[in-house]
Amino acid sequence: MITDVNIYGVYIPTLAAIALVCFFLNAILRRVLAYIGFYRLVWHRPLFDTAMYFCLLGVITLSINRIPL
After folding, report:
1. Among candidate residues 12, 23, 16, the one with its CA nearest the CA of residue 54
2. What percent of the chain has pLDDT over 90?
3. Over 90: is that where the pLDDT of 30 sits?
4. For the chain, what is the domain count?
5. In angstroms, how far is the first alpha carbon of the chain from the final one?
């Protein structure tokens, strides 16, 4: 597993970098779901968005841990 990400001499924890990527992916996915009208089927939108964020975070974290370096 990658322990830190080096960005011009500033070391950032891997989980923080993944969380930032997931934040932007979640924002894009929220717009797509709102555009297609998916949220009409969702009871509690903020709760669903939070759960979707953590699902994305878990999937990307597990995927990155399986990449051999």
Report:
1. 23
2. 70
3. yes
4. 1
5. 8
